[in-house]
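Comment thread on ticket #2218

A.B. wrote:
> Attaching the input chain for the structure job we discussed in standup.
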Amino acid sequence: MYKLALILLLIVAVLPCVAFAQRVKQDQLSLTQNQASHFAALAMKCIQKEYPNKLDHVNNDAEDVRSPRAMHPAFYGCFDWHSTVHGHWMLVHLLRLFPDMPEAHQIRAALDRNLSAKNIAGEVAYLNQTNRASFERTYGWAWLLKLAEELHAWNDRDGKRWSQNLQPLADGFAEKYLSFLPKQNYPIRTGVHPNTAFGLAFALDYARAVGNKSLETLIVERSRTYYAHDVNYPASWEPTTCHRDGPHRSKVGSPGWLEPQPRLVHAKYRERSAAKRSRAQRSGAIRGRTCKGRIGSRRQRQL
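C.D. wrote:
> Ran it. Output below, let me know if you need it in another format.
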């Protein structure tokens, strides 16, 4: 189950980032119906599997010790809350791409069970309890809004009903953004769940899709505050595009703001950096020759 949850997490983390790569020609990106069925099977297997489960929960009293499904009647599977949320997003996204896929009926039935008005009301009730301010902040918030955006854009009878059911929860998380972001003085730049840019990117997509001007304005302002003064940003170190995606969507700075800007760095630091790179390159070349020599000798002995 842990392996399945990890695979699902990697899948749904990659799919939205692909959308950002608009520079890639459209004909280079493709998803077949067979591949969609494979991905759907992964999500279907876990969104209704309650255990094992890693809760993000603060017990307010003895009566607050409850099962995952009791606390989260809609999103109780896939090991943790945000994983089941983005599992639902993937199912909706795949249905929009392949409405006639063989699993369409089963997917719709599962979504209908989990995204009922009653279940979402239970999620809203949990969110409004004491000591829930930091619940899933901001990774889970972002994925819930991404699911809401996907449903909002879907011209489908079931989709419209699920979108309407989900809206109170989406409103709750939008309010959390509006409350929290003005208090956050600096962005979290780690490349894992708390990453601020990831949370901003999905929330901005949602705000623009549904016309939430207050949320859009705040995210654009926060993005500029957090990232507009970055210089010599080591974007090549990032394993995905998501960290630079959030600021990019907000059009932070000039069109070339992500490009290296050595003129903004003091000359002595540029010289030191160049010297370090030169030493590192020489050292790497020596190590490379040494390793190649050893490997070659070993192969000769083996032969």
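A.B. wrote:
> Thanks. Noting for the ticket: Confidence is low (pLDDT under 50) at residues 18-25, 254-269, 285-303.
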